[in-house]
Amino acid sequence: MVVELISVGTELLLGNIVNTNAQFLAEKCALLGLSMYNQVVVGDNQERLTDTIKTALKRSDIVILTGGLGPTEDDLTKEVCAQAMGFALVEDKHTRERMEEYFKNGIYKKIPENNWKQAIVPDGAIVLDNDNGTAPGLILEKFGKSAILLPGPPNELYPLFMNKVYPYLQKLQPEVILSKMVKICGIGESQVETMVLDLIDKQTNPTIATYAKTGEVHVRITAKASDEEEAKKLIKPVLKEVKNRFGDHIYSTKEEESLEEAVVNLLKKYELTVCTAESCTGGMLAGRLVNVPGVSDVFREGFITYSNKSKRKLLDVSKSTLKKYGAVSQQTAKEMAMGGVLATDSDVCVAITGLAGPDGGTDEKPVGLVYIACYMKDKVWVEHYQFKGNRGKIREQSVVKALDLLRRSILDNYCS
Fold this sequence. Notes:
By secondary structure, the chain is α/β, with parallel strands linked by helices. Helices cover about 40% and strands about 25% of the residues.
């Protein structure tokens, strides 16, 4: 089946908002085995939106529209789509009651009159309750075509799609599509592809695809079958082979598990406490760890020691080390990691020091040079990298490598 995505909003055309919804929906539709040949962004204009919807319905079986379901005059998606497909608009009592309850329990008790517009729906549409906002999702079915209308805010769209729309789309598919994700750190995309190229070249079902992320590579194995059990059987030998080839470079085979979640789970598993000592990343590493719910069980403290003075005062980096080797050096990174453990009585400390640029580099120590150290159980691991890219990219890559070094250090201590 062919699906098309229409993102509605002048703010998207102007670049005021990054269209993360399109990436999310495209990825999920691919997982469902739906073919997507067109994505369109259209502004809040009735005539252009009408033309866009009619064109999409001619060439696609399913059209997903995001945005334009709000209470203001320029929110036109529902009205235009209903007109284009020949649906009358009526008030939905259930949605009105939910809106009343939403405002009753919210910080704004008085309901603005224009909000009642969101309780008006196409007659005969499938109404999808939105647990995170006032605009419901809608599914309009006619002449073998489906138009799916979703609110624009990601915190509303994502759960609504996964809980209500994803199961609906699954039922439209004659086959089961099942995927398994393998998440890899410490190897570049080209090397990963080379290591599985023979599998890719002879693939039929399941298929293998690689995706580059910052400091990571994800390998997706996807199978089509008549039922889920058969799809799992098809995936199993390929997954085993991929695991054999990449070994400890694999940090997770769970779709939703991030690198920091995998690291925190390892820390919990071995009952380890951790602290961070950062210079050029300025707290980004600690921030990634703190993103994980329950990290308070293992995370002690994070130091941002940007100046030499703070490195000496907070982490006890020696004056002679800084003078002889400089702040960006293997020796300083090592002492930062050791100092973090001693200062917090943690089991582990990860330290980062480097030159994020764009200024400050020399021939001996160019911009992008970063040292990362991990100290655990009287043993220290130090790695250095020469990253490319702008300041943000260098810092982001440094954090990923630091998380991976922490992960590998734990495995080296407990699984070797």
